[in-house]
Amino acid sequence: MVSLPIKWVKEYGVKKGDEIDISKQGRDLVVSSDKKKVGGKIAISLESDDGLYVYRHIQSAYVNGYDEIEFKYASPKIANTVQESLTRFIVGFELISQSKEGCIIKSISTGKDEEFDIILKRIFQGILQMDELFHNFLKNGEDIDLILNLEKINNRQVLHLQRIVNQGKVGGQFLYAALVLLEKLANEYKFIIHNKAHEGKTGAAILKYYTRLHKQLENVYDVFINYDSKKVSKIVLEDIRTEEFKVLFKENAYLTYSFMKIVDLLRSLLFQIVNLEFVKK
Q1: 0.90 exceeded by the pTM?
Q2: What is the pLDDT of residues 106-152, one digit of tens each?
Q3: Alpha carbon 118 to chain centroid, angstroms
Q4: HEC profile of 7-25
Q5: Residue 117 and residue 121: Cα distance in Å, rounded?
């Protein structure tokens, strides 16, 4: 057993069971980790109070694991935009100080590793709920406006987990890729509503195909919860990217295009789930 310097362990977020590298350099043994430094501060200059511009700067620093972000600006109005972005998109950060020249936001969340799996499951379940709402709309014409609220929740949860991944998590590259795909899946349902694709013709062929797509999403979730290589094989062999698309395009072109993207995203997500299963072992 080797004891490691506590300052180094905290700085890089090394936990019991993590792998570290030990290399020989002359008479010295060098201990290293492929983890990034945990936390830290960063200063960012903001030149506009445009909502998207401010959000993208906050998002980048947040996802990359900084615990404290100082924004410098010429217009105090920018602080209001920072606060709005925090409220809408960011989990566990608060505005702790503000002046005419700048403001500081800081993490008030521990970002515990044990909450990761719980939130990841909630993200997946949120997409299942969007899917169920849309399926019911096609069958019975039920209201689907709730999808837009669920997509906003998806954004906050995905960003939070991407932050935890970047602070050092086993299987990080596959988890990050899976999170990107889960966000894109939620976006597709949002785009369907924003582009009013669901208001076009949706006949029997569209409903029949989406019922198959609905079932495939449930199957991918089942593999995510209880991995089984036979189930993976069944999903791969039951390729629902079919000639039916030619027929569906005549019925509702934009909706069919959305279905094609959802199918491709699901297949990519399935293969990331396979990657994660090997990382666990």
Answers
A1: no
A2: 988 766 667 888 999 999 999 999 999 999 888 888 888 889 899 99
A3: 14
A4: HHHHHHCCCCCCCCEEEEE
A5: 6
Regions in the chain scoring below 50 on pLDDT: none
If you count them, how many residues does the chain have? 281
- The tokens describing 4, both together, are 């490691």
The candidate with the shortest Cα–Cα distance to 171, out of 113, 112, 90, 125, is 113
Residues 217/267, Cβ–Cβ less than 8 Å: no
pLDDT of residue 109: 74
233-242 own/partner pairs: CB under 8 Å, 24+ apart: 235/270, 236/267, 236/270, 240/209, 240/212, 240/213, 240/216
| Residue 229 exposed, middle or buried by CB count within 10 Å (0-12, 13-18, 19+) | exposed
- The two three-digit tokens of residue 86, written as one number: 């925090």
Amino acid at 71: F
Q: Which residues of 90-123 are buried (b: 16+ CB within 10 A; e: fewer)?
A: bbbbebeebeeebbbbbbeeebeeeebeebbeeb
Alpha-carbon span 272 to 109, nearest angstrom: 28
Q: Which H or E run contains 97?
A: strand 93-98
Whether the Cβ atoms of residue 48 and residue 54 lie closer than 8 Å to each other: yes
Burial 231-254 (b: 16+ CB within 10 A, else e): ebeebeeeebeeeeeeebeebbee
User: Are 130 and 148 a contacting pair, CB within 8 Å?
Assistant: no
